[in-house]
Write a structure and sequence with these properties.
Blueprint: H1 2-19, H2 21-36, E1 44-53, E2 59-68, E3 71-78, E4 82-87, E5 92-97, E6 100-105, H3 107-121, E7 130-136, E8 140-145, E9 149-152, H4 156-161, H5 169-173, H6 182-190, H7 196-203
Parallel strand pairs: 3-7, 4-8, 7-9
Antiparallel strand pairs: 1-2, 2-3, 4-5, 5-6
Helix pairs in contact: 6-7
């Protein structure tokens, strides 16, 4: 009997933890990360949980960045359930689960801030195509009216592969050290969670 009660308490604790927003967000990001690993690593370079300086002096955290000759994909992940309603220009969207409603900041606007931070970081490069994508898990039902790309997680890889026209192959493929492309090196140089010894190595081959 004591074992049964202990097991029940453990299960309740686990259920509580899994419902916590930060845990759900982490699970959603890891799911997308695994999907993005299906992309050909010779054509697509994946950076997860990118921390770079923002445009207003604050740090910007980007869930996933995929760098390729076809553009830089900037991906915001949302692991919500229920109905998700909103428009392109509304500041807040609504999550509805039965009769309970909650607000969330417009993820399109949120991702635009990420794109602006990357543009500032890579301002020396011309003709870069930035492709913002907002992905929701299959737990959600999207009922949004938008022109931007807001899709389900299951559609993400197919969406990325739909871009087939290279826009800056020479800039991507210019090597610096090892096999690291030039733009990737620039991002890694400014990334706030890159170890100092790596930054020192990069600084020896690039003027920043």
């Amino acid at each position: 009997m004591a074992f049964t009660y202990t097991l029940l308490i453990i299960l309740l604790i686990i259920a509580f933890i899994l419902k916590h927003p930060s845990v759900k967000g982490f699970v959603g990001e890891k799911t997308v990360q695994l999907l993005l690993k299906k992309l050909d690593p010779n054509e697509y370079y994946l950076v997860n949980d990118l921390l770079i300086p923002g445009t207003k002096g604050k740090t910007t955290q980007i869930d996933h960045v995929v760098i390729s000759a076809y553009g830089i994909f900037v991906i915001e992940t949302k692991n919500y359930k229920g109905w998700i309603t909103g428009t392109e220009n509304s500041q807040y969207w609504t999550q509805t689960i039965y009769k309970k409603k909650a607000r969330l900041f417009n993820p399109i606007w949120q991702n635009k801030g990420h794109v602006e931070a990357l543009k500032a970081l890579l301002s020396e490069f011309e003709n870069i195509r930035y492709i913002p994508i907002v992905v929701f898990s299959g737990r959600a039902t999207l009922k949004v009216s938008v022109s931007s790309t807001v899709i389900y997680t299951s559609q993400l890889v197919k969406n990325i592969l739909s871009y087939k026209d290279p826009v800056f192959r020479k800039q991507i493929e210019k090597p610096l050290f090892g096999s690291s492309p030039y733009i990737i090196c620039r991002i890694r140089m400014r990334e706030q969670n890159t170890p100092k010894h790596c930054k020192k190595k990069m600084k020896s081959v690039i003027n920043v």
